[in-house]
Amino acid sequence: MASPTTTTPTLDEEIETLQAQVSSLKKQIRIQTSTLIASPSTRQLFTDDFSLPEDTNPFRQKLVTQSAAQEAHNQQCLYRTCAGITTFRVRDPDPNAVEGRAVLGLRIEVVSRAKFLRPYYVLLNRPYPESRTRLRLHRHTVPPCIPLSGLATRHLPPPGRRQDLSRFARALRREIVRYHHRMGVVADLRKAAGLGRKKKKSSVGDGTQQQLLVDISPADAEAKQISIDWADGRTGRLVMSDDGEIVKLVALGEHGRDREAVRELLGGAVRVDDVTRRLAMG
Amino acid sequence: MPRISIPTAARLPSALRVEPSNPAVSKILSRLSRTSLVSVALDWLDDKNLPLAAPYLHQQANPDDSQDDDGLSDDDDFNPPARSLAALRELYGDLQTRKGSKREVLDRIIEGDWRHGLSLYQLAMADLQYLYDHPTSQKWSAYRIVALKTPSPDAADNDSHHPQEVDKESLTIPRFHPSTFLKSLQATVLPDVKAHYNFDRHKTLPLLLLRIFILDSPYNTNLAVKSSSGATSFDTSRTVYIAFPDASPFIYISKPQALSGSAPAGGGGTGESNSLRTLIVEGIPKALSRPRQRFTLKSTNLSTKNLEELLDKRGSARTNSAGGGWSIYADEKVKESPLDTVLPSPPLSDREEAPITKKPSPPSREDEEEQRTRKRMRLVAKARFGDSSLVDDSKGVERVDIILEDAFPSVASTTKRKRHQSGVEEEDNHHNDDRRRRTKTGGSGRKSNFEVALGDDELHGEEEAEEAGEGKWTPNVRLTFHGSHVFAGIRQLVERGIIDGERMPGWMTGEEGVTVGAVRNGRIRGHKGAGL
């Protein structure tokens, strides 16, 4: 009875590790292929061979097209990495869509914690028959805490006023990046205050330094306000400006406003980052 | 109970006890299942809730307001009061593990442990428990909180005819603070209406629920809940739920009565209770506003019983205005880093998923041809719907009303029939019953039911011949889609080739995110894509 119970898990484990190996190897292959196929020397090889009259090898044909696709993709990646905002064209699946179903897509890259997030997309169409070049917001994946509609009415108004797509795109990207920075600031603040993710760290924090703050969290959709809870029951609200400056910090204790706590926490800080630094130092 | 009750504008206190004989109490409690009932009772006995839900204990420590039934001796009491809280907790814990009837628990609560009355807080908890048990018991309408422009209060629909109306549309995102909101909401309610408010965090969804229990009484003391007036004023229709999704400028308001009309806060309600609700609903934007920052609620034409759908279409995520096929852009799980140079597979090539979902078809004698068309239809469905509208994604709307305002297609290969009277749905042989019922009301009082075949031609209707002569005849066509998950049903019809996925208008994919809409030129009118 003991033998099957001991062997089956190992067998399962073995299968699992093997499968993991397979998938990682497959991934390796894909990465290597993509690097190889787009490397200048390989491409040189292809073009050289094309001097032969009408190549009949279907594999080579395939390789050539794949190489071209890979190169296009590499270029796109390069633009995306460097430019922050890129555009692309989409065909609206709706057969009744305006303007021959043409849709212009904006792809807005966001980097957070040293990683590229899934980009935000804004898809624009041209619904005004009287002025063909005018764009209007069609679809988007921007979260509602970004004032997209306000920006759109300012920079992409309906016929009558001038539209400015690049200003729109820049303003939108600015808002999005700001938002992510503010979220990042809150996360940094939490880290500096010894608040790991979700209670796990708190016991460790108790050991090294006595926990002064028990909770720091964004209090509104835009993450412009941060609510702070002290260990002794005081609560506070920090209002942050668009760019991370401290607009106001109010702390409430048992006997009304607690200016002492505010001074203690801020200590002349102007930006929220300064508070983070102060907290991190101890 | 205080001797004198003065009419005030204050809200009903949570600790206010309602006599257990009140029909509303048994109504609210008996809706719950046995397990929920026991768990609610245990919640009441939790230390957090105890101050507002104290049970009737044996003699000592019993509160003053239970004087009226102290004549009862314990001996002939079926449900003798417990000696201590611990004992009571144990008792309910016991009930939880043991099998038994619901009646037993109900009696225990009403006649035993809370014989001195259940506080409004307790009733609110029980009601919320019902909402958790039956998540689709309320019909919610989503409203957008929009900043109000100062001069014109009525700029309801921002169609392109009023370019000057398009305000600078402030870049402010409405901010919501529960207690402040409640305070100002209270201030807007008239003194002859009393309401009890209870906030609760939804257990699974990122929502804050506010339950407003409206009583038609000038008093905020026991007088308000006396059973003499209770029978009428304690009506479940007077309970209004408001849900505040996290980090999202929307608000969902429940519609207790199954009113089919879409007119929300604007038109005064018919019934009295309805007008009370209207009063509350009108107070909401005022309560959200602050000096020099006014907001109003704007209907977003989406109402459903499914909170998850609401959170998907009017929530805080990326999916709000990327429905249908556009949902591929909103999927956060897709990794799309520009640093990853591996050539991505095109969105429709189902490299990984094909074997899992549909492959189990045994290598039967199915024609290659048919296989291919089947696959193609599936791909078309995927192109139109993306990853949305799957049968099991639990994000379904149960009813969609569409008015077609398009002119009658002149080139339609219409088979004209006189007085076509059948009007039967025939496509609901699918388990997700998508029945389409079309009713048409002609201008001159003629009424006829007719069916529209969504076949190889676009929506072409069979209609009465005599009027079709003019070029621009526009019949008044209303479509109502009904079912447990309407758009998933349409997706299935596309997958099976009953609807031509490529010629299907976009609003049938649900990408507009509305449940009420008018279609002109094949598109939902007024609702311009992103809903701006």
Brief summary of the model shown:
Chain A: Belongs to the CENP-O/MCM21 family. The complex is a heterodimer of chains A (282) and B (532). Chain A has helices spanning 2-38, 40-49, 58-83, 148-155, 165-192, 202-208, 259-266, 272-281; strands at residues 85-91, 102-108, 111-112, 115-116, 120-125, 136-140, 213-218, 225-230, 235-240, 246-253, 256-257.
How would you describe this protein?
Chain A: One of its GO terms (cellular component) is nucleus. Chain A: Keywords: Centromere, Chromosome, Nucleus. Chain A: It holds the Pfam family CENP-O. The complex is a heterodimer of chains A (282) and B (532). Chain A has helices at residues 2-38, 40-49, 58-83, 148-155, 165-192, 202-208, 259-266, 272-281; strands spanning 85-91, 102-108, 111-112, 115-116, 120-125, 136-140, 213-218, 225-230, 235-240, 246-253, 256-257. Chain A has 282 residues and is an alpha+beta fold. Among the domains of chain A are: 83-183, no CATH class; 197-281, no CATH class. In chain A, strand 3 (111-112) and strand 4 (115-116) form a beta hairpin. In chain A, helix 4 packs antiparallel against helix 5 and helix 5 (165-192) packs parallel to helix 8. The radius of gyration of chain A is 28 Å and the shape is flat. Chain B is an alpha+beta fold. Chain B folds into 3 domains: 20-116, no CATH class; 139-313, no CATH class; 335-532, Ubiquitin-like (UB roll), CATH 3.10.20.720. Chain B has helices spanning 23-30, 34-44, 85-97, 102-113, 120-133, 178-188, 227-233, 272-288, 307-313, 354-357, 368-385, 486-495, and strands at residues 17-18, 118-119, 139-147, 194-201, 207-215, 239-245, 250-255, 295-304, 399-404, 435-441, 447-449, 452-453, 460-461, 477-482, 516-520, 523-524. In chain B, the strands form 4 sheets. Chain B has a 6-stranded antiparallel beta sheet, with helices on both faces. A 6-stranded mixed beta sheet of chain B has the order 11-10-14-9-15-16, with no helix packed on it. The radius of gyration of chain B is 28 Å and the shape is globular. Residues 61-74, 151-168, 228-233, 257-270, 350-360, 412-470 and 527-532 of chain B have low confidence and may be disordered. The chains are: A alpha+beta (282), B alpha+beta (532). The interface between A and B is large, with 61 and 60 residues.
